[in-house]
Amino acid sequence: MPYTVFGLPTHILIIHVTVVGIPLACLGVLAIAIRPAWRRRFGWWVAALAVIMVPVTYATQLAGTQLYNHNSYLQTVAAQHKALGGTLVWFVAAVAVLALALALAERRGYADHHAAMVVIAALAIGASAICLVRVVQVGDSGARAAWGGIVKTSNK
């Protein structure tokens, strides 16, 4: 993966796909877990988005590691962000697996086996909620690393 694209660090460019895509996938999984009618209609689309977000998150992590290693001044302020960001792909993978499980269970007719769907839906809701929290934690630590040292001065 190139360190820069058009003169900008790759991490800065692809982070926007991650920041939008992961919450969208998590909210989609929450929606299809709660509403069976939406699961039948949108389940495979939500599962596809969740699965796509796994390699996108991994690529963002790799680009972030390159940015971290390439700039020694970042290594003190961005250490927490790097540590949190390194775990995010596992949370996204869990959401993707459970989104696939929801869509597949619906297709295979497990909606008739109410207990099985309740268990899968509960796991999907929990994983999505935890993943949303982790995205906020990673994003907040990244914003603090990027903008924490900037002091606003008045123009008086």
TrEMBL record:
- Which residue ranges does UniProt annotate as crossing the membrane? 12-35, 42-63, 83-104, 116-136
Q: Which InterPro entries match?
A: DUF2231_TM
Name the source's superkingdom. Bacteria
Q: Where is the DUF2231 domain?
A: 7-153
Keywords assigned by UniProt, alphabetized = Membrane, Transmembrane, Transmembrane helix
Q: Which Pfam family would be a valid example here?
A: DUF2231
**Name of the protein:** DUF2231 domain-containing protein
Q: Please give the organism.
A: Actinospica acidithermotolerans
